[in-house]
Write a structure and sequence with these properties.
Blueprint (H helix, E strand, L loop, with lengths): L3 E4 L2 E4 L3 E6 L5 H12 L6 E5 L5 E6 L2 E6 L7 H8 L4 E8 L8 H17 L20 H10 L23 H7 L1 E4 L2
Antiparallel strand pairs: 1-2, 3-4, 3-7, 4-5, 5-6, 7-8
Helix pairs in contact: 3-4
Length: 188
């Protein structure tokens, strides 16, 4: 089933990608995530896959691959911190991996369902700290989960930008490259 939801005025459907940036905050947990965000190139630091119904999402984060619920129509990571393992972030925007592709409506609906099913099948897997290995499926980092889900549908979200002057980093799936490689809408 395909669901729709609106967060911070941005409409999304099952399989669309919520993109966030480090949120910081005064406490140590907030500062930890701010540091992590500084190590990732670009403004987008984290990827969440919208599933539905309601505000149900899946992510690979501090709790591994897990589901959480956006309560209401405003992204408020502090209200969701208990569900997400104290991940403090701010909504950057929503990326639409299926927009602009030469696909029929039936193909889009099928892909959305398949992406959601793939992500749910990964629940409970640990966080992947080996960012250079995006090919495995035993553990996931946030953008790797989205990458693998869409790769199964024939859509490669890895633009292979890497980090300049650091060989081997083209295999890392950076959240910013997913944002930049998709049609997207920035939060206000």
């Amino acid at each position: 089933m395909i669901y729709e939801y609106q967060v911070n005025g941005l409409m999304m459907q099952t399989g669309d990608l919520i993109c966030t940036t480090d949120g910081g905050g005064a406490d140590m947990k907030g500062q930890f995530w701010r540091l992590v965000g500084k190590l990732i190139p670009g403004d987008v630091d984290h990827i969440v896959i919208y599933l539905g119904p309601g505000g149900r999402c899946v992510e690979a984060g501090p709790k591994g691959v897990s589901v959480f619920e956006i309560s209401g129509s405003i992204w408020d990571s502090e209200k969701m911190a208990d569900q997400r393992g104290d991940l403090i972030d701010e909504l950057y925007g929503v990326a639409y991996p299926l927009q602009g592709k030469d696909l029929t409506e039936a193909q889009i609906l099928s892909m959305r369902e398949d992406v959601a099913s793939y992500c749910l099948a990964q629940l409970g897997k640990p966080y992947n700290i080996d960012f250079l290995d995006s090919s495995g499926e035993d553990a996931f980092y946030c953008s790797q989960l989205a990458y693998k889900a869409y790769l199964k549908e024939g859509i490669d979200l890895n633009t292979r930008i890497g980090i300049p002057n650091i060989p081997g980093t083209e295999s890392i799936i950076f959240p910013q490259e997913i944002w930049s490689g998709c049609i997207h809408c920035r939060a206000v």
